[in-house]
Structure of Pentapeptide repeat-containing protein:
Amino acid sequence: MAGESRPVWASWKHYEIQLGIAGSVALAAGLQAWAPPALFKPIKWAFEVLKSWGLFTFPALVSVFGLVLLLAVRLLRGLRITLGLSNTRQTRAEAPQIRPLRWQLVAIAIVAISLITWLAFNWLLEIAAKANDSSSARIEAIRTALTIGAGTGGAVALMLNARRQWLAEHAQTHTESDSAQQRANELYVQSVEQLGHEKAPVRLGALYALEQLAQTNTNQRQTVINVLCAYLRIPFTPPSTSNVLLYGVSNDEIESLQEDKETQPEESPSESTTEAEKEQELHVRLAAQQILTRHLSNEANPGHLAADYWPGIDIDLRGATLFDFTLPKGANINVGQFSQARFYGHTSFANATFSSPASFSFAEFKEEAVNFDNAWLARGADFEGVEFSGETSFEKSRFGGELSLGGDASEHAEFSFRGTTYKKSVSFKNATFSHAPNFSESKFFAAAEFTDFGPGQSFSFAMRKPVIFADSQFYGDAIFAQGLGYRLRIPADFSGAAVRVDSTVETKRVWPLNWKEERLACDSHGTDSASGVWYKVAAEE
């Protein structure tokens, strides 16, 4: 079956055993071909002795075959035990099972040594009987036979010593591995405990200790990331006026805060201490963010080495409070959870890759710019209920899954979706923007929904600027309608925009008021007319 794993002893890791068997067969074949006949005289003599005992009759052959088969199976099993292998399924993290040496193997070794010594003794005595000086030859035969027995015993002893050495090395490896794992566990527990310390330097040290632990122990990386995310999810109120530029408060707001501070009563020592502690905690959180983000990219960046990349990381920052949160160039995130998070200062997910659906639902982006340029969201994203307060850019980003964006934008928020590609359906239902967004050069390969998208409801266009869809392309449904199905009344620019109509696919298109479809005289978009016909979006007269 495809789902079953092969035994460890048959896997490619132990190919040397298979090569050893093949080499032994080749060696035997070579000896059979060119070895001198004298080499096989002892073997021939042994067969003659066995034949004289009647061991080559049919019943005896069956018995001998069964005995040899059992011995072979037992020998192979003993060999696997000796090498520390097992034919049971094991995961890569499991260590090979160590078994004690069986007494049957010892008995077989003793019998084999005795048999080889006896055969050599009889064969050499037979040769010595034919010599001229039979007495001296017999003494030499006995000496040689005992030497052969001793050599055979020495080979067995060498095998046992090799096994003993392997066991010692194996035990040493396990001892070192257990010690390293114990040290890692102790460091992890100690660092986690220090994260709750009242002193900021102690917390900083704990963060860097956890980073070093994850760098040297790959199986601890996701655990360390989870701890960092959990720390950042702890509720935190930033300091009021100190280092405000760090998390993106405007100059006017700084002056206002300073004036309010001058008119307020002088702070008590306890209040000053609280503000200092908040500022120290802010530095600790910034360090946690840097540790979290600098291991997400396999590209070299300032302050980041490609070798520091931790692949397959999941990030859970739901409800976290983040400051100047910026991912490095080429960041790769498996699962990204940022729902209900609060982002202060400049926030950048530019050039990032999200392998799983990304969630930013009900997140708050405060004050500064938000950058998703060239981001690749392979399985879409959820931006429902998001609050944007600054310039937001999704230029040339790609959405491989469904996108849902509906939320509020402050009067300072400007949006650009120029050159964005939407592979799946996209919904801007109930999205509220104070400035007209830019969708120029975008490609909508599936349904695009812009319902409830007008003054007083979704988009507030007091500035009288049009929503720009110039040079955009629509391949599926395009719905610009209000709640009751009426055509949306918004200022818009569809110059150069086109829609592909496939007669084999049922689509629905409702354009804003004062806009309609007109068939193009020729295919200016390089599309085969057999797969669809291109129309342009033109202004109604």
Q: What stands out?
A: The mean pLDDT is 76. The first helix runs from residue 15 to 34.
